[in-house]
Amino acid sequence: MESPAAEIDGSAMEGGGQILRVSAALSCITGTSINITKIRAGRSTPGLRPQHLSGLQLVSDLCSGDLQGGIIGSTDISLTPGKIQSGNHTADPQTAGSVCLLMQVALPCALFADATSQLCLKGGTNAEMAPQIDYTVKVFKPIVERFGFQFDCDIRMRGFYPKGGGEVMVTVNPVKELLPVTMTERGNITKIHGRAFVAGVLPYKLAKDMSTAAVRTIRKEIKDLYINIHPLQEKENAFGNGNGIIIIAESSTGCMFAGSALGKKGVYVDKIGIEAAEMLLRNIRHNGCVDEFLQDQLIIFMALAKGTSRIRTGAVTLHTQTAIHIAEQLTQAKFTITKCEDELSSNVTYIIECQGSGATNPNL
User: Fold this and answer.
1) Contact present, 96 and 129 (Cβ < 8 Å)
2) Which of 248, 268, 343, 347 sits between 20 and 30 A of 213, alpha carbons compared?
């Protein structure tokens, strides 16, 4: 007997694309069919956007699945997964939709294939409302690989809003099971570095101005560290015009944090640099071990790992709560969130603990 499909409310909690990504990936890995209704019901343009649709098609392709309702604007889909297939898979929303969000949905699935997978992801590499590819490579990758797997990410072409045109090749080696991760001690910030870039027709001076403004802002709070934010002009491998900045802080225990921002029409570049710097400072003030953007991206791996993971965070985001809600619905994982008051400072941190479901790869 086929077990009944899991019913998922796409408008619950954060109510956006993240519900689709987490549930589609877990459907693929656990072999559970899903029906998602009320997709992005509260958004100004409800239903699937090209970005979400190509993510779902990618997962369906990865798990030889049957995707129903997969059209732009659809508010209801169902996915019946089959066997996870290694090999080459391509996703192209034909917009500036984020390649990093496509990677978020596909990476966990590829870990449970029978051999190496190559994911060719197209769209925006440095796009709004999503991690920049530099974040994915420099912050997400080294931390998530602690769960006991490795992947490679080759940035072939950068793409920006509104043209897209970026391309990233991700190579993923499968594993038998994921290891639990503990990150509870932040230690001291030991290093701050980054890149401020311009691409296309935008002048190099803008990159220098973003970098200078960011360094000046960080200096007000952190006086004793050398801060190296490298200004650069993207030459060959960028499609269209764009500018932006990402600043990364590393701690003595190997924790990573970031602040980033992208240029927008009519916004002074100093403001972009300051925005990224303030975001970074906000994320290192709380003494947690991950920043607000990594938090929710780790939940699916905690849920699948064999054993107990514990991660100290700042305030728990709605994205994280949503990912936990879906992970508990589709796996046997159990999460608890504990508030920790620090006597020495006014900082409040939280420990997210997860007894993982111990998913094993049947294809290896």
Assistant:
1) no
2) 347
pLDDT of 341 reads: 82
> What ranges in 131-254 are assigned the alpha helix state H?
133-135, 141-144, 204-219
- Contact (Cβ atoms closer than 8 angstroms) between residue 349 and residue 288: yes
CA distance 102 to 52: 8
Whether 319 contacts 295, CB under 8 Å: yes
- Distance between CA 266 and CA 8 in Å, rounded? 41
Please give the helix or strand (H or E) that residue 59 lies within, else none: helix 50-62
Q: Taking Cα atoms as reference points, which of 322, 255, 341 lies closest to residue 290?
A: 255
pLDDT lower than 50: segments of the chain: none
Dump the DSSP string for 288-343.
Answer: -SS-HHHHHHHHHHHHHSSSEEEEEESSPPHHHHHHHHHHHHHSS-EEEEEEEE-S
Please give the pLDDT value at position 185.
Answer: 96
Number of neighbours of residue 225 by Cβ within 10 angstroms: 15
Residue 346 pLDDT: 75
Structure tokens at 243: 């500018």
Annotation marks residue 319 as catalytic: yes
Q: Measured between alpha carbons, how far is 65 from 316 in angstroms, rounded to an integer?
A: 33
Residue 214, both tokens = 């960011």
